[in-house]
């Protein structure tokens, strides 16, 4: 079968391989959080103290002999499983394995997505290149974040469910849910479409991961986790424009802080949390209703992935790798560092607006196609 997009995919893959080789020699934050968590798991020492940022940062520095600090919050205890297979290696060797393994999964996932699209429509070369070479992709590689792996898992879920392989798709989604609690909105959308085998597979895999890790940790970590997430979301630093979320936007506009947000546009703290959650809730409800009525599986899955990103309370650039679209190529420094005071802050959220725009496009596709 003729696939005109394959050379572009190959070129982008080669560029990513070169950048990965260049980045592998660096020691940065990001990956070290996964590595330190995996070592705690391997040593049977993972417990509630991991959610103490000072304790975890000190442990990481002692473990790696570096001055780098990282946090485990707001990840679930199961996140430690992501780097567990390579935790016995020295941290610099483990980083090399992690990077090349992550990039391989990402490149393979993009190939699978392109093949799935080619079954129905031509694959836009520009969109393919932008998805693979977006700034978020390079940021994930440079710091060794785990969202290349999350991208591959959610891509697998989308492709397999679109091809009616519900058990495989649900299992991939369950891994993303279990490891990073990523994909909750997508789970709700496939439930709205009554894909019960996929829902059951996702829930089974996510619960199995939690049960598998619990005997090897201090189980009190599970009780500490929700409190740690709530405290993390409430931090004043959540208003910085590096977090491209609806919650961050409203906090930036409404909630003053002498360090993180000295010049908000208004004093409206009472609505800063309520409105974002309401918007996400309404968007989920609308999408679920039309997903229930629609026969367009791909549009439903696309909307679910977009809402997965939009529902994140603290989504930074690395999370937006899940979108892989041209709008997300806007460099962060062109906006986030310039529009930080008053009403100018509304210009500092290009990724957030792109995500909402793409959700609207996906919803339109659901609305225009009548149920069979």
Write the SSE topology:
Blueprint: H1 6-23, H2 31-42, H3 53-64, H4 91-118, H5 125-133, H6 135-143, H7 147-162, H8 166-180, H9 184-192, H10 196-213, H11 220-234, H12 246-254, H13 269-272, H14 274-293, H15 297-310, H16 350-368
Structural descriptors:
372 residues; mainly alpha
Helix content: 55-70%
How would a textbook summarize the main sheet? none
DSSP E strands, number: 0
Uncertain segments are: 325-339
Share of residues in strands: under 5%
Rounded mean pLDDT is 86
Shape by Cα distribution: globular
Q: What structural category do the secondary elements indicate? A: mainly alpha
Instruction: Give the N-to-C terminal Cα separation.
Output: 31 Å
* H/I helix tally: 16
Protein model, in words:
With 372 residues, the chain is an all-alpha fold. The protein has two domains: 6-215, no CATH class; 235-368, no CATH class. The chain is 61% helix and 0% strand. The chain has 16 helices and no strands. Helix 4 (91-118) packs parallel to helix 7, helix 7 packs antiparallel against helix 15 and helix 8 (166-180) packs parallel to helix 10. The longest helix has 28 residues, at 91-118. It is globular. 46% of the residues are buried.
């Amino acid at each position: 079968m003729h696939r005109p997009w394959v050379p572009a995919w190959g070129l982008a893959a080669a560029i990513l391989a070169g950048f990965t080789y260049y980045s592998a020699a660096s020691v940065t934050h990001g990956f070290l959080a996964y590595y330190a968590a995996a070592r705690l798991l391997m040593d049977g020492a993972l417990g509630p103290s991991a959610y103490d940022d000072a304790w975890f940062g000190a442990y990481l520095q002692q473990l790696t002999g570096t001055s780098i600090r990282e946090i485990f919050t707001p990840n679930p205890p199961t996140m430690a499983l992501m780097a567990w297979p390579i935790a016995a290696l020295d941290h610099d060797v483990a980083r090399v394995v992690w990077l090349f393994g992550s990039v391989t999964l990402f490149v393979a996932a993009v190939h699978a997505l392109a093949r799935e699209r080619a079954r129905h429509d031509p694959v836009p070369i520009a969109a393919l290149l932008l998805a693979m070479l977006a700034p978020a992709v390079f940021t994930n590689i440079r710091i060794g974040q785990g969202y290349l792996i999350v991208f591959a898992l959610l891509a697998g879920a989308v492709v397999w469910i679109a091809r009616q392989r519900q058990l495989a798709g649900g299992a991939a989604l369950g891994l993303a849910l279990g490891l990073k609690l990523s994909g909750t909105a997508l789970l709700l959308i496939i439930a709205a479409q009554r894909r019960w085998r996929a829902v059951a597979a996702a829930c089974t895999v996510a619960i199995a991961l939690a049960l598998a890790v619990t005997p090897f940790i201090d189980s009190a970590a599970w009780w500490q986790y929700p409190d740690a997430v709530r405290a993390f979301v409430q931090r004043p630093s959540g208003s910085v424009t590096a977090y491209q979320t609806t919650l961050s936007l409203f906090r930036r506009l409404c909630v003053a802080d002498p360090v993180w947000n000295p010049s908000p546009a208004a004093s409206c703290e009472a609505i800063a949390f309520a409105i974002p959650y309401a918007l996400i809730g309404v968007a989920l409800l609308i999408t679920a209703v039309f997903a229930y009525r629609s026969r367009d599986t791909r549009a439903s899955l696309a909307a679910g992935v977009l809402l997965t990103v939009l529902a994140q309370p603290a989504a930074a650039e690395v999370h937006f790798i899940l979108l892989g679209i041209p709008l997300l190529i806007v460099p962060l420094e062109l906006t986030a560092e310039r529009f930080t005071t008053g009403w100018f802050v509304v210009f500092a959220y290009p990724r957030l607006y792109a995500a909402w725009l793409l959700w609207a496009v996906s919803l339109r596709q659901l609305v225009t196609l009548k149920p069979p």
